[in-house]
Amino acid sequence: MINDLINQMVEAGVHLGHQTRKWHPSMKKYLLKDKAGIHIINLEETEKCLDKACSFLADLARRNKKILFVGCKRQAQEAVREAAEATGQYYVNHRWLGGMLTNMSTIRKSIERLVYLEGIEKSPEFKSMSKKELAALDRERQKLERNLQGIRNMGGAPDAMVAIGADHEDIAIREAHRLNIPVCVLVDTNADPKEIDFPIPGNDDAVRSIRLILDCIVKAINEGKGASAEA
């Protein structure tokens, strides 16, 4: 019996994979058929996987753990930021800098540099700087802000990662694995789900698909936080 969530997934295009010639064989168990050269994802499998991921994340939220949302492809950027803000968590949605998890000392220095640049007008050297120097520092500030705004207050490695696109965010996922950080990933038909703790098979290119999956995750995390507050 098709439920409301699966109906919503169909409307959002979660079931639409890549062209059959671009598929990854490890995704076979999540696929239903191909239609006009496009792989169709079995949404019953998607729902089961999403439920597992949401249960895991809700439990983390119940224990006040940190969750990092990652989605740097254009279609995911805004939705990832909104999901993190809606749950009081952290995000990277512009560019994953190598070492964001495995070289936290360098990242902390970059965050300190951002704080300095944000308060540059209060520094003793500000009045002696030329317009050209200040313009260059402002460009640096904007770049650091784009890359670090969502993790500046994270204060250490997260307890889990939620990523949009296994292929697009492979560097972030590899860093998480090196630190034994569990990852929940929206995985399209062209990617390998084998190394992902909680794969969620689905369209990772459509904005509506990404938003629907993230909405479910946001709801689960907030319910977990609510249960923690009531305890």
UniProtKB/TrEMBL annotation:
InterPro entries cross-referenced by the UniProt entry: Ribosomal_uS2 (IPR001865), Ribosomal_uS2_bac/mit/plastid (IPR005706), Ribosomal_uS2_CS (IPR018130), Ribosomal_uS2_flav_dom_sf (IPR023591)
Ranges in a coiled coil: 127-154
Mention one GO molecular function.
structural constituent of ribosome
For this record, the Gene Ontology CC terms, alphabetical, are: cytosolic small ribosomal subunit
Tell me the Gene3D superfamilies matching this sequence: Glucose-6-phosphate isomerase like protein, domain 1, Helix hairpin bin
Q: Which Pfam families match?
A: Ribosomal_S2
Q: Which family does it belong to?
A: Belongs to the universal ribosomal protein uS2 family.
Q: Write the protein's name.
A: Small ribosomal subunit protein uS2
Give the organism the record lists. Answer: Akkermansia muciniphila (strain ATCC BAA-835 / DSM 22959 / JCM 33894 / BCRC 81048 / CCUG 64013 / CIP 107961 / Muc)
